[in-house]
Amino acid sequence: MWAEYASNIRVQQKDKDIVVTYDLSHSSYVRLLVSVNGGSYMPLKAVEGAVGEHVRPGKNLNITWHPLEEKDAFVAHNVRFKIETTSTYSRYAMPVYEGGKTTIKTAVLGQYGIGIHPRGDIYGIKVMQTYNRGVGWYADFMSNFNFSTPEYEYVSSQSEPYYSGIRQSSFWALHAGFALDILEAAHAVNNRFNTFGFYMGLGAGGQKEYWETTDGKWIYNDTYSKQGGIGFNAGLLFSVYGFTVNGGTGFMFINGNVSMHVEIGAGWMF
After folding, report:
1. pTM of the complete model
2. DSSP H or E stretch at residue 56
3. Class of the 6-93 domain?
4. Dist CA 167 CA 213 (whole Å)
5. Model confidence pLDDT, tens digit, residues 67-77
6. Which CATH code fits 105-269?
């Protein structure tokens, strides 16, 4: 979605201003960025001329930067300037990150989890939102959506039943907590839809376990069952031009036992 149309770039100082001259081959959205001492490129705001929206193609176009309107002083070595261009179509379909002007990022992902103990598939949804400096929150809900449980009976501890090996479970978990967009926090991304971050939080949930006996009866296993267990999950999230994936793991502590699952997800950031 990105297109670089600038060429033949020259830089010179005129009095207290910096003038960047360049040629442009296509109508574009144009930004001027600067890097000092090998650092990350940062967009400049106190600029005028052939910069901003709908710059028409031409030769010897000028951008004038007024450093003292943006900084109290500008004395530096190893200064590099960069002209960043984006086509009109790309600007419409995939807005460019404005260096702090548009920092709210919202990701919605469908989730799939593989239960390790007990085994089973679970599904859900995750929502994550980050703000200025990349700090934000997330929330998710996971369940196997098996809410129809069999009729069961309790077995006296005096008798030990024989199990057929067939089990049913009902599981749900709700988590919420802290999220961080590492690239945003480090000012290391110019496109607001590129993200690398992590999430971690606490939650609550419940699990019911039913085991079948060899004579076809169902037993409620209260060792692995409880409504109101304490949960924890954490993972990483990665986004490229809006397409977003995540991977992580979750735990549920129930009656002194640990239920664990691995989760992956895919969705979109906007």
Report:
1. 0.57
2. none
3. mainly beta
4. 10
5. 999 877 777 77
6. 2.40.160.20
